[in-house]
Structure formats: structure tokens, C-alpha cells
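Researcher: Sequence recovery benchmark, item below. Answer with residues only.
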């Protein structure tokens, strides 16, 4: 078993929200954490990367190895969402959404695999319940997250015998700064929050730390027989049928 203190993790989009919570949780367990995103992150070592740049994934992995000498954990969290029906979605918005949400995780995995294989490493992809169902006006986002779930299974199948595990987490509504700002921008945020509670059997929305807790377990030695799975963390939302 590899001690937490010997492990190195790369968390993309680790400056805020779910990514920051995962980075903090892993760091609290003794993991050396490096984040990658636009701009720097003050809490952990970071690499500035624009994932619309096709050369960014290879450069990020090279930088991690240069800084830390190894890579044990890859968390693909960075993502974007563009609103619009299929008629309203431009080819650019479609291409950029799939680039950041699906192609970049694939390229990071591809570049990281030799290092993960040598360490018996683990991958966690942050998908979405929108890879399982759909909110209105999100065709590109839904397609990208559904593809990320499928990629998770493919990597698990191909590289399990190499000692690499790959799982995904499909969060529901999580109280990130972005979601909180959206609610506050509405005319009646309190009414919206009450409606949100009603669509969740647990009666509330989720916290980034709850996603981080699962991510940390998935990359731990306790989960060595767990791979190729998409873990839905949504307070029961996807299990609850709507009323007529």
C-alpha cells in the first residue's frame, strides 16, 4: 500500500468549487496536490493552463512530473457549460464544450497513463447527472458528460490489468459559488431555493465537500476493487419521479 504522503495528485479546475474541495481533501490526507486551471491557485501548487489550447494537456503533465517526479492521482474536474438548444448552439460552442469537457480529459489520461501505470494510480472524472438525464438547453454539455462517463468505463476496461483504476462522479446540484451567484441573481432566490429542496428527497442541495469525500475514497487503497463506475451523488434527485 502506498502512503498518502507519498502520493501526488493533479486536480484540474482546482481553484474553486468541487475542484477546490477535492484538492483540499486530498491535501488534508497528506497528498501532494497540484492544480491546473486558468490563473493561479493560492492554496496549492498550481499550473496555469488554458484547456482550449490543444497543447495544454501534454504540457500540464510534463510540468507535474517536473515539479513532483511522479503522478499517482488524476482528477479531471475542469469544465464549461454553454447554454442553448441545438438550434441556438453554434459550432464553436459545441466544439469548445466537447474540447474542455471530454477531449481534454482524454488527452490528460493519455499523457498521464505511463506515470499512473508505474505507480498503480487512479483516475476520477467529474461527470454530471446531465450525462444521465438532461436539463433544458444543454445539448453540448449533456453530450460531453455522457461521453466522459463512457470514457471512464473504457479506460477502466483497457487499463485495469495495468493497475490503473478509473471512476466517475456524477454530481447533482452542488452549492458552488457559481450556482449560489445564479440563485442570488434571480428575482426571488428564496422561492427558488425552496423549489430546489423539493426535487431532492434529502430536502437540500449538496456541498462540494460531499463530492470531495467520495473522490478521496475512490483514489484510496480502500477502493482497490472499485473501477469503471459512475457514482451518482445527487441527494436522490434522479431516483424521484416528478408529480403530474
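Model:
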Amino acid at each position: 500500500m502506498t502512503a498518502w504522503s507519498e502520493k501526488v495528485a493533479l486536480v484540474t479546475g482546482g481553484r474553486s468549487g468541487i475542484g477546490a474541495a477535492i484538492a483540499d481533501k486530498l491535501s488534508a490526507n497528506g497528498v501532494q496536490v497540484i492544480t491546473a486551471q486558468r490563473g493561479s491557485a493560492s492554496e496549492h501548487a498550481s499550473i496555469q493552463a488554458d484547456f482550449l489550447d490543444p497543447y495544454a494537456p501534454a504540457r500540464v503533465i510534463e510540468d507535474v512530473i517536473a515539479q513532483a517526479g511522479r503522478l499517482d492521482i488524476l482528477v479531471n474536474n475542469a469544465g464549461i457549460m454553454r447554454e442553448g438548444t441545438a438550434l441556438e448552439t453554434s459550432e464553436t460552442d459545441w466544439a469548445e464544450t466537447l474540447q474542455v469537457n471530454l477531449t481534454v480529459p482524454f488527452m490528460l489520461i493519455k499523457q498521464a497513463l505511463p506515470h499512473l501505470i508505474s505507480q498503480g494510480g487512479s483516475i476520477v472524472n467529474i461527470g454530471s447527472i446531465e450525462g444521465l438525464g438532461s436539463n433544458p438547453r444543454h445539448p453540448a454539455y449533456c453530450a460531453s458528460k455522457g461521453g466522459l462517463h463512457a470514457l471512464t468505463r473504457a479506460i477502466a476496461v483497457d487499463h485495469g490489468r495495468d493497475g490503473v483504476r478509473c471512476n466517475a462522479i456524477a454530481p447533482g446540484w452542488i452549492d458552488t459559488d457559481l450556482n449560489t451567484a445564479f440563485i442570488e441573481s434571480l428575482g426571488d432566490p428564496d422561492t427558488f431555493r425552496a423549489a430546489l429542496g423539493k426535487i431532492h428527497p434529502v430536502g437540500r442541495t449538496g456541498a462540494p465537500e460531499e463530492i470531495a469525500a467520495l473522490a478521496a475514497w475512490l483514489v484510496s487503497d480502500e477502493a482497490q476493487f472499485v473501477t469503471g463506475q459512475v457514482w451518482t451523488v445527487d441527494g436522490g434527485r434522479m431516483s424521484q419521479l416528478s408529480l403530474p
